[in-house]
Amino acid sequence: MTAEANPLPEATPVRQSQKEATRRRVIAAARELFDAHGYEGTTIREIARHAGVAVGSVFTTFASKGEILSEVMAARLELLYAEVDRVMPHVRGSTVDRLRTMFAIHFEFEARHVRLFLAHIAAAFDHTLSGAARPYGRNEHFQQVIRDILQAGIRAGEVRPDIDMQEAVDLMMAAYAWTYRIVVTTEADAKALIAVMDRQLGLIVAGLAPER
Amino acid sequence: MKHISPNQVAADAPARPPTRRALAKQQTRQKVLAAARRLFSEQGYEGATIRDIAAAAGMSTGAVFANFTDKSDLFREIMVDDMEALVTSMREAAERGRNVEDALLKVFMAGYTFYKTRLQLARAAFSVSWDRDGGPSLRGLPSSLAFQELFTEQLASAVTRGELSQEAEVKLRSQMLMDTYLSNFPQAIFEGWSLDALQARARDQIRILLAGARRG
């Protein structure tokens, strides 16, 4: 997403499109390898071989393995959010039900590539990565969807108007991320994760409701 | 009190009282652990190699491997030491709580205070715990289970005292409290949040997570 900020002057158009092609091939190859072998289990060398490009050109395109992972996740999420944006305006029901639906869509999407998602979280704590390569938890789009649902909840009188919005969002994001831990310990499927998240959302939203 | 699984007992129990050799081995272990703690703190889990750790401890890699099966074994040992110390201080903190909310806040803060000077180690622990192979081994440790138990006990006794309703869903709530406690670490690690900022946030979070149980 921030790739355009690169101030390197005038690559020729041909060169630029070659570079773009390399980028796309590397991301596609990395996505498959991370998914199959995890983040730690995949080397840049293997990614280069799988993508059919030279190791050197991977390094001229990406600063680190972490940056490749960030880009892999960003590319996948574009698809997800196109879907979320299409669906959410039509989702009815109470605040908690709308939140449940939204998170369920996420679990359904990520459950097909759980290793990748776990790698994403693990990488968030990898000290060798620069700040730019730590995307997890900073997903602005995801957070905005939650905020919109909560705002609608406030208008409907289901959520206290004086809640700290960011805090409420973070609480749900934490519950969401930690729910994946079940996958690490057991072999839970999306359905099991959604059931756990439903209960957690019920509890959080009860805590955000106006005092009676 | 250390919980020891039957397997460990079989492997660890010495047939005779410790010999001079066993004591020397114990000292070697301590030296390796101290060096490993320093390197994990400075370079993270992935950044520290057994070779570096051996060099820092002033011994051969062979001597390290004679005492620890691998790097994750070494790391686990350090985590266990820390977690046991931390659970003890959390328990003491909880006893000073005026009510369930205050007790939980004190538990959270005991943790943040403990790790305030060990943030790089905390970061390494998170990195390992999200790993598909490292995660289960770290989370299944008796000392990590003791954390969870601590939250459960606090809620259960609040139910007994009538502070929380009978339908408080103690298991789910204590799980969420623990998750929330852990989820604030990135703010401390990456954004340099002060203990005051963490406390303000934790107070709100605990209030939200308990609210439904109060109205019951």
Task: List the SSEs and their pairings.
The complex is a heterodimer of chains A (212) and B (216).
Chain A: H1 13-37, H2 44-51, H3 55-61, H4 65-87, H5 95-110, H6 114-123, H7 140-155, H8 165-179, H9 181-185, H10 190-208
Helix pairs in contact in A: 1-2, 1-4, 1-6, 4-6, 5-7, 5-10, 7-8, 8-10
Chain B: H1 6-12, H2 20-47, H3 50-57, H4 61-67, H5 71-95, H6 100-116, H7 119-129, H8 134-139, H9 142-161, H10 170-183, H11 185-190, H12 195-215
Helix pairs in contact in B: 2-3, 2-5, 2-7, 5-6, 5-9, 6-12, 9-10, 10-12
Main features:
heterodimer, A: 212 residues, mainly alpha, Arc Repressor Mutant, subunit A, Tetracycline Repressor, domain 2, 2 domains, 68% helix, disordered N terminus, B: 216 residues, 79% helix, 0% strand, elongated
Runs of chain B in which pLDDT lies below 50 for 5 or more consecutive residues are 1-10
> Total helix count of chain A?
10
Approximate shape of chain B: elongated
For the residues shown, what is the average pLDDT of chain A? 83
C-alpha-based Rg of chain A, rounded = 20 Å
- List the helices and strands of chain A in order: HHHHHHHHHH
Annotation, overall tally of beta strands of chain B: 0
Nearest-angstrom radius of gyration of chain B?
Answer: 20 Å
Question: CATH top level of the largest domain in chain A?
Answer: Mainly Alpha
Estimate the strand proportion of chain A.
under 5%
Greatest chain-chain contact: A-B, 37 and 37 residues
User: What is the SS-derived class of chain B?
Assistant: mainly alpha
Based on CA inertia axes, which overall geometry of chain A fits? elongated
Largest sheet of chain B: none
Domains counted in the coordinates of chain A: how many? Answer: 2
Oligomeric status of the shown chains? heterodimer
Mean pLDDT of chain B: 85
Structural class of chain A: mainly alpha
* Major pleated sheet of chain A: none
Q: Can you tell me the residue ranges of chain A where pLDDT is under 50 for at least 5 consecutive residues?
A: 1-7, 130-135
Query: Could you say what the CATH architecture of the largest domain in chain A is?
Result: Orthogonal Bundle
